[in-house]
Amino acid sequence: MATVLLTSAAPASDPSWPYPYDELERMRTSAQSDRFGVHTRTKDGSAADIILFIENTNTARHFFHVLSHTLYDQYPHKCYLFSRHDHPIPFLPGVYASLPQRWHRKDHTRSGSYLKAFGHTHVRFDPLIEPGAYLYSFLGKTSTHPIRDRICALTHPRQYVQDTSPFWPYGELTETARQELQDNYRRVSHESSFILAPRGEGASSIRLFESLRMGRAPVIISDDWMPPEGPDWEAFSFRVAEAEIEQIPDLLERHEHRAPEMGRRAREAWENWFSAEATFHRVTEWCLDIQASRSSASSRPYLKALPQCLSPRYARIVGSTLKRHLFRRRHPSSTAPEVDVRA
User: Fold this and answer.
1) Nearest to residue 62, comparing CAs of 299, 325, 335?
2) I need a surface site. Which of 24, 131, 146, 159 has the fewest CB within 10 A?
3) Distances (CA, A) of 200 to 12, 27, 69, 84, 225
4) Residues in a beta bridge with 7
5) pLDDT tens-place string over residues 199-243
6) Residue 333: is its pLDDT beyond 60?
7) Strands 50-55, 79-83: parallel, antiparallel or unpaired by DSSP?
8) Residue 189: φ, ψ to 5°
9) Are 86 and 145 within 8 A, CB to CB?
10) What's the rounded Cα separation, in Å, for the pair 317 and 116?
11) Contact 18, 55 (CB under 8 A)
12) Residue 186 contacts by C-beta under 8 Å, 6 or more apart in sequence?
């Protein structure tokens, strides 16, 4: 049993840091509805076994705030991070929702899910009793990764594929238009035997976990995705190499008779690993696994992320974040412009 302190290092009044605590509130919701009852929460850093920073911004930007946080200053060996960012840099040991395989270290990181997957009210469970009207479906932006264009180029008489890029950004849509999109996503998903879950800007996708929640077997298309440890992924999902996307229709036709059973197992995985009732427990367990794997509690765990920071994509993220950080330190009343670091 572990005692966990849930917190955030995000500033409360930075206009360039919108919704700083929404991820923290979701994790607190999960802790309040925890079905396992093994781990407890505390507000006392000295009593905590795990101090878990739950953040809603890129991990390079978050890092500078954690370094100056009193809890990190006092208890660096207890501090872990939960991050949903698309391009995570594991300066802290912890759980990362979009962790690429090549940056995973057993003594430093675990792959996780997206807290929004249990927060979206339009995503609902509907058991698949028999093969659906659609063999497979995909609704999403194609602009986030080239493999999504190839998905939209697939042809099958029972596919439903829609590029939602014209509706982006969703936050600027009217409430009616947003509701129509959500209703259509739910309806199509419920009428599908399988749901395609390609990577987006990051190695993972929230659609993967929404598929589990709805009781549909996901088809995972991401060569670099690191699956969360624990679930039996082969029992309820397919993983297709990015180079073999064109084989998806034939693959799913051959296995459609398995779709109801795979959907049932997908829902079980959701309930046991990624639901609101399971997430707090599982994230704590993953942090404890890291703790047990560490040969020593280094006071400078961020040094393990240095090789990743030297790669071009991540060097741009760190560079732009450092530039903003230094600007704010010199001009505390100003807000440095945001820099788009996406490749």
Assistant:
1) 325
2) 146
3) 29, 23, 32, 13, 11
4) 53
5) 999 999 999 999 999 999 999 999 999 999 999 999 999 999 999
6) no
7) parallel
8) -60, -40
9) no
10) 24
11) no
12) 122, 123, 124, 214
Helix ranges (H only) for 169-246 are: 175-190, 206-214, 233-236
CA 146/CA 158 separation, integer angstroms: 23
What would the two tokens of residue 66 be? 């954690």
Cis peptide before 146 (omega within 30 of 0): no
Tens digit of pLDDT for each residue in 299-331?
677 788 888 888 888 888 888 877 776 666 666
Tokens 């009732």 locate to 277
What is the CATH topology of the domain spanning 122-274?
Answer: Rossmann fold (3.40.50)
Cα(280)–Cα(236) distance, rounded to whole angstroms? Answer: 23
Q: Which residues lie closer than 8 Å to 106 by C-beta, 6 or more apart?
A: 293
The first and second tokens of residue 72, run together, are 């990190």
Residue 36's contacts (CB-CB under 8 Å, 6 or more residues apart) are 278, 281
Tens digits of per-residue pLDDT, 80-115? 999 999 999 898 999 999 989 999 999 999 999 999
**DSSP string computed for 76-105:** GGGEEEEE--SS---SSSEEETT-BGGG--
First-to-last CA distance in the chain?
A: 42
Tell me how crowded residue 17 is: count the other CB atoms within 10 A of its CB.
Answer: 18
Structure tokens at 12: 């409360």
Instruction: Enter the tokens of residue 15.
Output: 């206009």
> What does the buried/exposed string (b/e) look like for 28-66 if buried means 16 or more CB atoms within 10 Å of the residue's CB?
ebbbeebeeeebebeeebeebbbbbbbbbbbbbbbbbbb
Please state the separation of Cα 214 from the chain's center in Å.
Answer: 17
State how far the alpha carbon of 234 is from the alpha carbons of 92, 128, 254, in Å: 30, 18, 16
Q: Locate 103 and state its tokens.
A: 């940056």
Beta strands in 122-199 (DSSP E): 134-140, 159-163, 192-198
Decide if 109 contacts 304 (C-beta within 8 A).
no
Structure tokens at 255: 């296995």
